[in-house]
Write a structure and sequence with these properties.
single chain, 244 residues, alpha/beta, Rossmann fold, Arc Repressor Mutant, subunit A, 5-stranded parallel sheet, 38% helix, 19% strand, globular
């Protein structure tokens, strides 16, 4: 069996069910990863301070008065952790729950019960995206090295640490999908980027594409743009445009 992308990567499992936690740990070990398990937000934070994981598998419902969403927001608000891909594994399977989880900063969302084969594929895709350079083969833009910032006008995108800076303002953290979208927009500043090109880019990186997901990612990007949100324009029946 070929070595999976991100093999030997450290994975933090945040799950309060001991049975599920042990099952995930067993599978992750078998797949070649280095799992650690936490049963609460407090325990997870303690582990993350000791060792920064390369991926977090996160349950929504956790004990102690703090949910997985609380931990997710903590991760996304941290300069040290904002780059970590997070996959939510939860029994909350309604569309509104999925949207809320993605909007809160999750890179992917998988509802229980789930196939272990699908889980493995999603883990591989997330680790692939977090390690590989952000490229634009599907959209026709030049390839961008992971460590090289993309600068256009007042915008500076740093794919390596997933931050977006506008002018002299402090950089803000954005998720992996938003990095892909923002790269396409910056390389086509002032021009419309077709939804089909964004879809191809997302599928190439292993992201599940549908209208709902894309709308969520664009909404998160507008939030990151703050006062400049109006410069990210929806072009009806076409795609999106970032105005200079």
């Amino acid at each position: 069996m070929s070595k999976p992308p991100g093999s030997a990567a450290s994975v933090l499992v945040v799950e309060d069910s001991l049975d599920i936690s042990e099952m995930l740990k067993e599978h992750l070990t078998r797949w070649g990863y280095q799992p650690e398990c936490a049963g609460s937000v407090v325990e997870a934070l303690q582990m993350m301070h000791r060792r920064t994981p390369q991926l977090v598998l996160l349950d929504w419902g956790l004990p102690g008065g703090r949910s997985g969403i609380d931990l997710l927001k903590k991760i996304r608000g941290s300069r040290d952790w904002a780059h970590i891909p997070v996959l939510m594994l939860t029994a909350r399977a309604q569309v509104d729950d999925r949207i809320y989880g993605l909007d809160a900063g999750s890179d992917d969302y998988l509802a229980k019960p789930y196939s272990m084969r699908e889980l493995r594929s999603r883990i591989q895709a997330l680790l692939r995206r977090s390690r590989r350079p952000v490229d634009a083969a599907a959209g026709g833009e030049p390839e961008v090295d992971e460590g090289d910032p993309v600068r256009q006008g007042i915008f500076t995108l740093n794919p390596a640490d997933r931050t977006l800076q506008i002018g002299g303002e402090n950089p803000v953290s954005i998720g992996g999908p938003e990095v892909l979208i923002m790269t396409a927009l910056l390389n086509n500043l002032g021009r419309t980027v077709q939804r089909q090109k964004l879809a191809a880019r997302m599928r190439q990186r292993g992201l599940e594409f549908n209208e709902c997901n894309l709308n969520v990612y664009v909404s998160r990007l507008r939030k990151a743009l703050g006062a400049r949100a109006r410069q990210l324009v929806t072009v009806r029946n076409s795609g999106y445009r970032l105005d200079p």
